Amino acid sequence: MTGALAQASAPAPAASVPRVRTTADIVREAPASAWRRPDPDNVLAMTLPSGIVWIELAPRFAPHHAANIRTLVAQHYFDGLAVIRVQDNFVAQWGDPAAAGDDESKLRPLGAAAAKLQPEFSIADRGLKITRLKDRDVWAPVTGFVDGFPVAADPKTHRAWIAHCYGTIGAGRGDTVDSANGAELYAVIGQSPRGLDLNITPVARVLQGMELLSSLPRGGQNMGFYDKPEQNVRITKVERLADMPEGTRPDVRVFRTDTPQWNEMIESRRNRRDSWYVHKAGAIDLCNITVPVKIAPRAAAN
Amino acid sequence: MTGALAQASAPAPAASVPRVRTTADIVREAPASAWRRPDPDNVLAMTLPSGIVWIELAPRFAPHHAANIRTLVAQHYFDGLAVIRVQDNFVAQWGDPAAAGDDESKLRPLGAAAAKLQPEFSIADRGLKITRLKDRDVWAPVTGFVDGFPVAADPKTHRAWIAHCYGTIGAGRGDTVDSANGAELYAVIGQSPRGLDLNITPVARVLQGMELLSSLPRGGQNMGFYDKPEQNVRITKVERLADMPEGTRPDVRVFRTDTPQWNEMIESRRNRRDSWYVHKAGAIDLCNITVPVKIAPRAAAN
């Protein structure tokens, strides 16, 4: 989205040769109506030493987990905790480093947040508007997008769920399905582990800053948990966008997934229009689609 | 594969209760015949400051590229070159940093290696024994494995090709299909970009050490190319296993993909047997399957 790119595409094509718009063209030229501003109550900024990971919660799919996470954030629960696990081609996980130990007295208190939540692995599909992909999927009969989230669904069971794609965030749990509470979270950093779908509660997705998680050093043989406390990557703080001063908070915009521009963008991913591609795939995987996001800093208030 | 794990599985199950073997059990308990030693001519050790990335070339799929790469390695072409591009959720790429510039006189000479090769995007499927997956695939009618490589095929065109999965290595090319020579290589570090299939020549795959590439700092807005020369990650050297002294070279073994143990392992990935999983997916994606590899150092020769 640099000025140079915009300039390169400026010359108008001859009327008789319809211009082929690449994915970048479609996104850049989309009208303001093709973008949405997510509810600032559901946008989190997780500050790591390397920068900010922007996150959007998914209350539609995991209302109780999203509410619990908001409660934790309001209590500054995550501030000073850490990324404690990075397993290659799987997940980066963060939460209370003391959770790996045996001494529960060292755990940071959850305060007003619930310690256990019923699983929210899937929701009823009634009334859910999925912008469907026409492509096959390995794992589910139906796939598509809802508000920017990659979603799978099964018309037979009338259930829908957020798919475990690159950037999907879930709530870690123990052996029992009701052992999660949102205090320990993971983000997918590799090939989509869709086998996790319907086994754990997806609660959010990364809007921007994935590279800050995906490029972290990998942990050891024990499922990627860091072996030594000094390997943990400290979380400076996690804040809600809604809690930042309105005049100065960044302008977060997410490409809508229910517009003609979205459909054209998907088609440009299915059959790449850059001349480099000599073979048109004619297909796209749910988890190969990155929903464009723009996060612009606001000038400090006068 | 630790001793502790082996011990934990030692107690024999009662005859009336067939023991459910997890993926780890199946691999650990597999007989020696379930493993193969790849041809040492085709195994490369790429030493980075952080450790060794082990690579197996795929001469069956890309004979001319594999031969050219072996010629380059024999000339120590890669020694002192660098990883010059890391694009998040896509590829890490290495080769001659001067290739990014305009001054061809600065390029390291290719010596006896060819400067251009005909594309080897796919091969005829005649006589190719693919251990097929029964699962759907988004991109191709047939998928499976050949000698540890993830392969897709189309019975209509009678062509087969290595799929762009996590760890697949390809030969970077310019705008023309014959502009690759194997001197610039990339490894997939994110969600499988299968749209690259049939557009570029896969030449190898990473056997071990993916985390050394996938955890590298990401480059900038220009497709992940590092903006500054000092960001480049120097390649200490690339050697062939065959060129290491026979008595001391590491013992490289790769799980065979044409055995009953392989099939059982795949089934254990399709329907996970760990009790943590409450939902059985009943499916697996070609690119979700990691072929087990064991690389054991040999004691120094007496």
Describe this structure in words.
By secondary structure, the first copy, chain A, is an alpha+beta fold. Chain A has one domain (21-297): Beta Barrel (Cyclophilin), CATH 2.40.100. Chain A is 14% helix and 25% strand. Chain A has a nine-stranded antiparallel beta sheet with strand order 14-4-5-12-11-13-3-2-15. In chain A, strands 6-10-9-8-7 form a five-stranded antiparallel beta sheet, with no helix packed on it. In chain A, strands 1-16-17 form a three-stranded antiparallel beta sheet, with no helix packed on it.
Which regions of chain A contain 5 or more consecutive residues with pLDDT less than 50? 1-14
Biggest β-sheet strands, sense, barrel of chain A: 9 strands, antiparallel
- Tell me, rounded to a whole number, the average pLDDT of chain A: 92
Under the CATH scheme, which architecture of chain A would be assigned?
Beta Barrel
Count the E strands of chain A: 17
Strand content of chain A: 25-35%
Largest interface: A-B, 45 and 45 residues
Question: What would you call the shape of chain A?
Answer: globular
CATH class of chain A: Mainly Beta
Provide the CATH superfamily of chain A. Answer: Cyclophilin-like
Helix content of chain A: 10-25%
Structural class of chain A: alpha+beta
Number of helices of chain A: 5
Distance between the termini of chain A: 28 Å
Which radius of gyration of chain A do the C-alpha atoms yield? 20 Å
- In spatial order, strands of the major sheet of chain A run 14-4-5-12-11-13-3-2-15
Number of domains of chain A: 1
